[in-house]
Design brief:
alpha/beta
Length: 354
C-alpha cells in the first residue's frame, strides 16, 4: 500500500481507495460489523493506520443524530469500588467509540425512603442528569449505590436511554449489579468451613445497597448453618472506621472470625488487632471485600471477595447501546455479575480458645 500524494486530512474515501474496497466496507469495519472478512478488515485497519484517519464525529452526528457522547454519574468516587466502577464504564464506552462525560457527586446522608421531600442526593442526581442532557449525551449510566440515588432514577426524562448500576430493580431502567449477597455468603461460608463457631461482621454504612447486600449474605450463611448471629458493627468504608471497630472486637472473648464489608476497613481492623496483640490468622481469621490491589500485600495478605468491575462496565455499556438502538419499548433487564472469593493468608482453621 502506498498512501496518496495529496496533503489533506484523510477522509473515508482515501481509506477505501488505499485498501481497495468500497466506502461502505470501510464503514462496516469502523462499526465492527460482523459480516466483514478478516483479511478485508485487516487491510482496512492497515490503511487507516498508514493514513492516520480519524472519524469526523461531528459530520457523523448530523447523519445519525447522535453526539456519540455518553454521560456517567458516579458517587463518592474517592472510594475504590465506585472509582473502579466508573473506570470500567469509561473504558467500555471508549472501546465502543463513545466519548464520556463523568459527573461525580458527593455522597450525602439522605432522609428515609418515606420522606416527603427530595433528599440532597436525589436533587444532585436530577441536576446532574439535566446537565448531561444539556450536553446532548445519547444516554446515561448512573452508578446508584444508595436508596436516595435509586429513587431519583424514577424521574428520568422521557426518551433518555439509561442504565443503572447497583440499583434495586423496580422496572424503571435496566440494571447491572454484582451479587453482593452471594459474595458475603461465600466469605462467611469459608470461615464456617474452617471451623469457626460464628462470624462477626463489620458492615458498611446504612443506606448503601452494597452494605445491605453484604449483611444479607452474611446473615443468610450463619442462619443456614444454625449459628448465632452477632450484632454487626457499622463503619463508613474507611480504614479509620475499621480501626475503631477492630478495637471494639478485640475486647470480645471467644471471637475467632470476622467478615469485613470492604478491604479498606479490613486494613484498619488488622492494625487494631495488631496493636491489641491479636495474631491474624492464628487467633482470628479475617475476610474483606473488593480485592483492592494492595490487599495481596497487607500483613497478612487478605482473603477477600473480588468484584469484576470491568465486566460491570462492559455489560452496562452493552445494555445502554441496546436501548439506544431499540425502535420501541424494551424489557428492563437485570444482569448479575458473580463475585469471586480469593483465599489468602488472613484465614486459617479455628483453634480452641484465643
Amino acid at each position: 500500500m502506498r498512501p496518496p500524494a495529496e496533503r489533506h486530512l484523510p477522509i473515508m474515501a482515501d481509506v477505501a481507495r488505499l485498501a481497495g474496497v468500497s466506502q461502505q466496507t470501510v464503514s462496516r469495519v469502523l462499526n465492527k460489523h460482523p459480516r466483514v472478512r478478516e483479511a478485508t478488515r485487516v487491510r482496512v485497519l492497515h490503511a487507516i493506520g498508514i493514513l492516520g484517519y480519524r472519524r469526523n464525529l461531528a459530520a457523523r452526528a448530523l447523519v445519525t443524530r447522535r453526539s456519540h457522547r455518553l454521560g456517567v454519574i458516579g458517587f463518592n468516587t474517592t472510594l475504590y469500588g465506585p472509582a473502579r466502577t466508573v473506570h470500567g464504564i469509561e473504558q467500555a464506552a471508549r472501546e465502543a467509540g463513545y466519548f464520556v462525560s463523568v459527573l461525580s457527586l458527593r455522597t450525602i446522608n439522605a432522609p428515609t425512603a418515606t420522606a416527603a421531600v427530595s433528599s440532597p442526593v436525589e436533587q444532585g442526581v436530577d441536576e446532574a442528569i439535566g446537565h448531561l442532557v444539556e450536553q446532548g449525551v445519547d444516554g446515561v449510566v448512573v452508578v446508584a449505590p444508595q436508596h436516595a440515588a435509586a429513587r431519583a432514577l424514577a424521574g428520568l426524562p422521557p426518551g433518555l436511554p439509561a442504565v443503572a448500576i447497583e440499583y434495586p430493580h423496580h422496572g424503571h431502567v435496566p440494571v447491572v449489579r454484582v451479587d453482593q449477597a452471594e459474595g458475603a455468603r461465600q466469605a462467611t461460608a469459608l470461615l464456617l468451613a474452617l471451623g469457626h463457631e460464628t462470624v462477626w461482621h463489620v458492615s458498611g454504612p446504612d443506606g448503601w445497597l452494597e452494605s445491605e447486600g453484604r449483611r444479607e449474605g452474611w446473615r443468610a450463611a450463619l442462619s443456614a448453618a444454625g449459628r448465632r448471629i452477632p450484632e454487626p458493627l457499622t463503619g463508613d468504608w474507611t480504614p479509620r472506621s475499621g480501626y475503631v471497630a477492630g478495637g471494639e472486637l478485640a475486647r470480645i472473648s471467644g471471637l475467632s472470625a470476622v467478615f469485613v464489608a470492604n478491604d479498606q476497613m479490613a486494613l484498619g481492623l488488622l492494625r487494631a488487632f495488631s496493636e491489641a496483640g491479636i495474631r491474624v490468622p492464628e487467633q482470628v481469621s479475617v475476610v474483606g471485600f473488593d480485592d483492592v490491589p494492595e490487599s495481596a500485600y497487607f500483613t497478612p495478605a487478605l482473603t477477600t471477595v473480588r468484584q469484576d468491575f470491568g465486566q460491570v462496565g462492559r455489560l452496562s455499556i452493552e445494555l445502554l447501546l441496546g436501548r439506544m438502538d431499540a425502535a420501541g419499548p424494551v424489557a428492563h433487564e437485570v444482569l448479575v455479575v458473580p463475585p469471586q472469593l480469593i483465599a489468602r493468608d488472613s484465614t486459617a482453621r479455628a483453634r480452641d480458645g484465643r
